[in-house]
Amino acid sequence: MYEFKYSNAEREMEVYGYDSVVKSHCRMCHGGCGVLVYVKDGKVAKIAGDPDCPINHGTLCSKGLASAQLVYHPDRLTYPVKRVGPKGSGKWERISWDEALDTIAGRILDYKEKYGAESVVFGYGTGRENEAVIYRIANLLGSPNVLTAGHFCYGPRIATSIITCGTNPIIDYDNFPKCIMMWGNNLAISNPDEYKGEPFSVALDAGAKLIVIDPRLTRPAARADLWLQLRPGTDAALALGMLNVIVNEGLYDKEFVENYTFGWDQFVKRVHEYPLHKVEEITWVPQEKIRAAARLFAKTKPAALQWGVAIEQQINCADNDRLLMFLMGLTGNIDAPGGQVLYKTPPIVNVSRFGAHAMLPKEQAAKRLGGERFRLAGHFAIINPKTVWDAILEEKPYPVKMLFFISSNPVLTRANAREVYKALQKVDFMAVADFFLTPTAELADIVLPAATWLEMDYIGDFWKRHGYILPRRKVVQIGECRSDHEMLNDLAHRIGQGEHWWDTFEGGLDHILQPMGIRWKDFKEMEYIRGEVRYRKYKEQGFSTPTRKFELYSTTLEKMGYDPLPQHREVPESPVSAPELYREYPYILITGARQPGFFHTENRQLPWMRELHRDPQVEIHPETAAKEGIKEGDWVIIESPRGKVRQRAKLFSGIDPRVVAAQHGWWFPEKEAPGHGWDESNINILTDNAYDGCDPEMGATNVRTLLCRIYPEAREGE
Asked: How far is CA 662 from CA 61, 217, 438, 632, 704, in A?
């Protein structure tokens, strides 16, 4: 058992009669939070935050506190099953792991022989810390097709930061930014990627100024010194407007610009195309607020920019990310204490090397679905989901015959959900690994029981860019559940990849740690390892970009045939781009705001989490509700050109009357299988995935902003 330095855990063990306490790291959302797991009679009895963890300092969100409700849920899948009868029949038969993996392996090898390895598509959900093993098995098989959320979640940040400044710039909350600009993000609820809400709140309490850019009055927006309530989907124009102020008023770091940037003159020309009167017209944000925000951010040192997935799930995805990095760099806050740091990871076998990307034959990489169209995405082994659905439904450019989804529920999480459902019904063979029989899993041929974070050993935060790795220690074993890493290690041996894998996945953990000269048995006794922290490294070595400079003008994008400078594009459905459609669908619909307790489609089975959110809600301004005859709590219909769904009305004055905001990821585990009401309130019934509406570089699907109409359900059919 691990040796603990703090008295609180020892005291609680004595007072409450716990048998032991295990120090680990939560993975109920993006992960990293240190936890103390109290065990009694061989079961998890309580989970609390670990005050010694440098990530969360003892704080823990509702999801982490409720982890045991997931582990011991009575509906949880605890053994492999195969479908009996037609897809969606809801009839399953228990099978052994050997039968399950032998069947999956046989299908993989059969499809590879008949149609090529590219006909087998692996997939995973957002940031589940299984990406390295999934890419490894796919690349060694010869399949270039791994279907992730990476086209519109975090992947664009990595891809654009690598071509702009070398790596993802992460806020240095340890050194207390004096100004924080939060853009399309609600950190206190989402705790995304490298970040947790606690250090942000501490920085505010220490006196940091706060600028919030968001169409909704979030809690951070209510606390902000400046709240810029922009028109949804106009982030790029707003950023260009701020940069216009910074350039024209000489608020930029002149030494940085002169010595460390590439493409300054071309960039200045581009920002001059966005004078504030034009930006105000595009964004709905008054000129004086844009100017005030630009000045506050540029003049306050150090300053940091907190941004997230909301700006990536739209047509301006890559340009949005680049523009926000420009705001960091040009104000002198890149790789600066209290600003945005280019952290170094410890010397490990990183995700790219572990994922065996270099071992995918070039002729197979050239077959990556959508790689020709979305070239920046293809360069980083990312594909657009619609390319997979098309390859199933139309067999173009070649047929996809098999899907293997791990911790992913695309029926709920991908745009144009009815097309997704149709493709999953048609595909020859599908395997799914998950905690429950989700609406996606119910369309599978075989479903494997996945382990939760409490049931595995792993190197936590292995994929992140904040410089930490942390040991996740196995606490319990539930039924026959296996971690994603263990099941793929076993499967790899069955498809002829044994020489590249290990007898057990502990060997894989040893492989990751090998450059440091330690093994898993050593690491699991440690608190954490952090890479060396140094600031302004570019002054000694430049940036790891093609020009060795901070690239305002992207030489990489230019070579790919894209505009090397960012720009504002109108979203496909807006009052500006589609005025006739706007007359028929007179409200801008935004989607995807996070709710405490849920992680996309997960946790709606858990009692504590469902008590927080019983039903899906759509936020409507009181003026709009009165106009449409809608009262608080009414079931209302939200309709787009693709279809209609129902959610409960929540009247909310912190939103523009021209905008409504719906929740995403909704299904109803308590409803009858199969389906569990997957199409009742699923906002992706309304979203579109047409290629010309996607970000041209990353293929990001524009799911955040569209047009809709809304009316009481009672009026349906009138």
From this structure: 23, 14, 22, 15, 10
- What's phi and psi for 303, nearest 5 deg? -130, 155
From 3.40.630.30, 3.40.50.740, 2.102.10.10, 1.10.287.3610, which CATH number describes the 81-152+351-454+481-509 domain? 3.40.50.740
Query: And the tokens for 7?
Result: 């008295």
Q: Which tokens is 49 given?
A: 């935050």
Q: Where are the beta strands (DSSP E) in 2-140?
A: 20-25, 34-40, 43-49, 81-83, 92-94, 120-124
With vertex at residue 128, the alpha carbon angle to CA 685 and CA 212, rounded to the nearest 5 degrees, is 70
Over its C-alpha atoms, the chain yields an Rg (Å, rounded) of: 25
3-class DSSP state of 629: coil
Residues 569-607: pLDDT tens digits?
999 999 999 999 999 999 999 998 888 899 999 999 999
Bridge-partner residues for 304, per DSSP?
A: 180
Q: Which residues pair with 460 in a beta bridge?
A: 470
Topology adopted by domain 7-60: N-terminal domain of TfIIb (2.20.25)
In the chain, pLDDT over 90 holds for what percent of residues? 91
Cα-to-chain-centroid distance, residue 129: 12
- Between CA 71 and CA 67 the distance in angstroms is 6
Entry pTM: 0.96
For 165-344+546-560, the fitting CATH number among 3.30.750.200, 3.40.228.10, 3.40.50.720, 3.30.70.120 is 3.40.228.10
The amino acid sitting at 88 is: G
Distance of CA 273 to the CA centre of its chain: 32
